[in-house]
Amino acid sequence: MDDIPANLGLLFDALSQAGHRVLVAESGESALAQLTHETPDLVLLDYMLPGMDGMEVCRRIKAMPACSDLPILFLTAVNELDEKVRALDAGAVDYVTKPIQTPEVLARVRTHLRVARLQRELEDELEMRREAEEQLRDSLDRALLVVSPEGRILFATRLAQTLLTRSFPTLAPSQLPASLRSFSAEPAPAVSEVAPGLSARALTAGVGDTRVIELQAQVTLGPNALLGLGLTPREVEVLFWLSEGKTNAEIGIILSSARRTVEKHVEHILEKLQVENRAAAILAALAVLRGDS
Question: For residue 79, what are the domain limits?
Fold first, then answer.
């Protein structure tokens, strides 16, 4: 945005010819009004504007939630160091000193658009990693196996390995029990009892030809049996649903509680049962629910 028509025309033509779509505002108020309807990828902001000056416009843009990360480049005839520092402190990422040199403006625009794009890609990647870590954390609380078409166990969560060891004590660590081998084929059975007190169900296919199997210990008692563990009624409900293979998010939905509340209950359960992790707590619950203790 600039208040001198000649400068606006020069910038408009140069940016348009470089392949950019340009929105023009001749005042700070006009620019702020436009930003309520559309958020650009970058703002070129004149330092000296009629009415509201560029510094105030910059602050107001940065205060808008949708524009907090919007790169702003000042166009200024001011060559005082203090004023340039003020512009950067107000939220600008760069400045171009007048008289404007078109190649310089285009180069700086390209640079900051590239930086902004890389930042967005990094944020997207970090978000994907956070989601993947969350899914992994949830899955590790379940008895999951990843098996090859040949019937080898490629990966097992701690709970799955413990359940297999209990039901098949002589089995080699990477060997899939005979009763589970049908799950490595296509099509796999939906749900099947694979050992006394142990059932399995096929989940979605894994990477390539691998298969994902969830093991579930069959319970013979209800949640109230867990009250003998010294837990509160709500903690008993949480532990029961954990033993059913539910994630924190799923338990929150079942109990109409926030996920963070469920996580707090899990922390208290671990403390009261004096166990180090959720898998150990689930095993303690399963021992009670199956009538083993």
Answer: 5-122
